[in-house]
Design goal:
The chain is mostly beta strands and 603 residues long. It folds into four domains: 2-112, no CATH class; 125-318, YVTN repeat-like/Quinoprotein amine dehydrogenase (Methylamine Dehydrogenase, Chain H, 7 Propeller); 328-407 and 532-603, Lipocalin; 411-447 and 449-492 and 494-525, Lipocalin (Beta Barrel). Helices cover 1% and strands 44% of the residues. The strands form 13 sheets. The chain has a five-stranded mixed β-barrel. A four-stranded antiparallel β-sheet has the order 9-10-11-12, with no helix packed on it. A hairpin with a 2-residue loop joins strand 36 (450-452) and strand 37 (455-463). It starts with a strand and ends with a helix.
Length: 603
């Protein structure tokens, strides 16, 4: 059984791939087309099976949620008291048989579908020759049908859309529902865990929690576990529905938990994996697996390994054979994008203001910072004017090692190639003596080059009424892919990934573009003179005069603002993401660190 959103549910024969039955989705009617459609007028009020070519037309015409209109080009029809009816002769064409009741309105004769399942997003669950699934927006119910025929056994209305899969334990069916969905958060969130009878859908109990449940409920040894969008894992007594405990992750949870004999594993919107002890509730560990990108895939555990799907790193298999935790520093391919990320630990888990995530710096680090922060080896070099120092990002303490020598030149080295600007011209060279290509923009280049994916990004001087431009060029030959006008002069180099390109501008904003084609996004206001932002996945960290904040580019929402930002003065350079901490040099508070302090840093 396969779920297919607006198209409902399909039952496919495993050995042949032939479709055996279809449970309709959003469509409550089919428009009848073709020369044989008129013959159905004599069967108004009758239940029929109509065969022909099925199409959906006008999808999205009235908005992104508009399902369009289903049509069937009638080839043949017959009276049929009830399903099952044969579907798709070969199982692999758009020709199929649709079962419904012939009806007529001012538009003419049509086929009315008696059992539909609007917004089919709940994964089906099969048990004891039954199939159970939820109905989403417009349906708001839990359904149970006969697995052989598709005939309805029972359906139960629920207060909110049911997106998650039902969970069957003995004679109980558990499912989570609530206000909101994977993308949208409502002003008055609420979630419910429902326990129904497998026999007839009668409600056994319901438990209200703070926000919606979008994944499946997991059951282990008499307890039900549910992930809520409020960032908590709820533990509920299976018989009574009483909330026994909850475990916080600090960021919305939209998938299902995996529960073993002794542990609970969940992934949150902050891109972090959490492991809790199932019996004591203590957090065993947390680690960033998808920095800056939400985890929407539910984890799975097998043979001592945990498997998880991510949006920006593909499928991951995680294990901890020796108990050690190692930091992997970013390769040149990522540093060339000037994103400000320097290791794989990603962003700290921050929700709301950051008052509880502020490191207390050593006294020498509270002096005004004079210039941009620079990563040298595994250390952070902080410019205090006459006395630059090295800071260990693992401890937040000053390191007495000698300052490593800064790499010469302002170009970008990647793939054995060096990209530089020579008198306003973009140059790609294999060595000091071998130039591969030179690309002269229409107006002189004004920033250092940035390389991300298959493109090189630069800013260029203005022309006529345009104050400046940003360009994306092919890395292979420097040819122009796109060129867009900036609203004001650039104040930084381009910060780029394979998805996004951003640059600080003199109108106190961050200009944003899609990296692939230069599609313009709404600029982000900083509220004062900005510096180059940092970019981690879909999260942009901005800094400037009295401002440090995080913005989610995928949802176009502000995630948090730094609580003490009014007292920092001005940021002196791009934020640095290193050691699961955001580091910002400021003129009034010195070195600001936003993250979870290590035990040594706390001491």
């Amino acid at each position: 059984f396969v779920v297919c959103c607006d198209y409902g549910y399909w039952c496919v024969e495993v050995s042949t791939g032939k479709v055996r039955l279809h449970l309709e989705g959003t469509s409550v009617r089919y428009e009848l087309l073709g020369s044989k459609a008129s013959g159905l007028a004599a069967l108004v009020g009758k239940t029929v099976a109509v065969s022909g070519l099925v199409k959906r037309v006008g999808h999205g015409a009235k908005g992104k949620d508009d399902p369009g209109t289903m049509t069937i080009d009638v080839k043949e029809f017959r009276e049929a008291a009830a399903p099952p009816v044969p579907l798709m002769e070969s199982g692999r064409t758009l020709d199929r048989t649709v079962w419904g009741k012939v009806a007529k309105d001012d538009k003419g004769v049509y086929l009315a579908i008696e059992l539909t399942n609007p917004d089919s997003e709940s994964s089906p669950v099969a048990v004891e020759q039954r199939v159970l699934f939820g109905s989403g927006v417009g349906g708001q119910r839990v359904n149970c049908v006969d697995a052989a025929t598709g005939a309805l056994i029972w359906k139960v209305s629920v207060p909110y859309p049911a997106f998650g899969a039902p969970t069957v334990v003995g004679d109980k069916v558990l499912i989570g529902v609530g206000k909101g969905d994977f993308v949208n958060t409502v002003k008055d969130p609420v979630g419910l865990i429902l326990c129904l009878s497998l026999k007839d859908g009668a409600k056994r109990w319901e438990t209200q929690i703070a926000d919606t449940i979008l994944g499946a409920v997991t059951v282990q040894e008499g307890r039900a576990y549910a992930c809520s969008k409020d960032g908590n894992v709820y533990v509920v007594d299976l018989e009574k529905g009483t909330v026994l405990s909850k475990f916080a992750t600090g960021s919305p949870l939209v998938s299902s938990p995996v529960v073993t004999a002794d542990a609970i594993y969940v992934g949150n919107d902050g891109g972090r994996l959490f492991c809790f002890d199932r019996k004591t509730g203590a957090m065993r560990f947390t680690t960033p697996v998808s920095p800056g990108s939400p985890i929407v895939s539910s984890p799975a555990v097998s043979s001592g390994k945990l498997f998880m799907g991510t949006r920006n790193k593909g499928m991951l298999c995680l294990a901890d054979p020796d108990g050690t935790k190692q930091t992997v520093f970013m390769p040149p391919e990522l540093i060339a994008g000037r994103t400000g990320c320097y290791d794989d630990r990603g962003l700290p888990a921050v929700s709301g203001d950051t008052s509880e995530l502020k490191w207390t710096p050593a006294e020498p680090l509270t002096k005004p910072v004079a210039g941009p922060l620079v990563v040298r080896g595994r250390f952070l070099a902080v410019d205090f004017g006459a006395d630059p120092v090295l800071v260990d990002p693992a401890t937040g303490q000053i390191d007495k090692s000698s300052l490593p020598t800064k790499a010469s030149g302002e170009g970008v080295w990647i793939h054995g190639l060096r990209f530089t600007i020579d008198d306003g011209v973009l140059v790609c060279a294999a060595s000091a003596d071998v130039q591969l290509w030179r690309a002269k923009p229409e107006t002189p280049a004004t920033s250092l080059p940035t390389v991300a994916g298959d493109k090189v990004f630069i800013t260029a001087a203005g022309k006529d009424k345009a104050k400046a431009f940003i360009e994306g060029r092919k890395i292979v030959d420097g040819s122009l892919v796109w060129r867009r006008e900036l609203d004001d002069a650039p104040l930084s180099y381009v910060v780029a990934s394979s998805e996004w390109a951003a640059v600080a501008t003199a109108d106190d904003k961050i200009a944003l573009f899609r990296a692939s084609d230069g599609k313009v996004r709404e600029p982000l206001p900083v509220g004062g003179k900005p510096v180059a932002p940092a970019l981690c996945g879909d999260v942009l960290i901005i800094a400037g005069e009295t401002r440090i904040a995080a913005h989610d580019l995928s949802s176009s929402e502000w995630i948090w603002n730094y609580k003490d930002q009014d007292n920092i003065g001005t940021a002196t350079g791009q934020p640095i993401i290193l050691g699961e901490t955001i580091w910002v040099g400021t003129t009034k508070r010195g070195l600001v660190a936003i993250g979870v302090p290590s035990s040594q840093a706390k001491q």
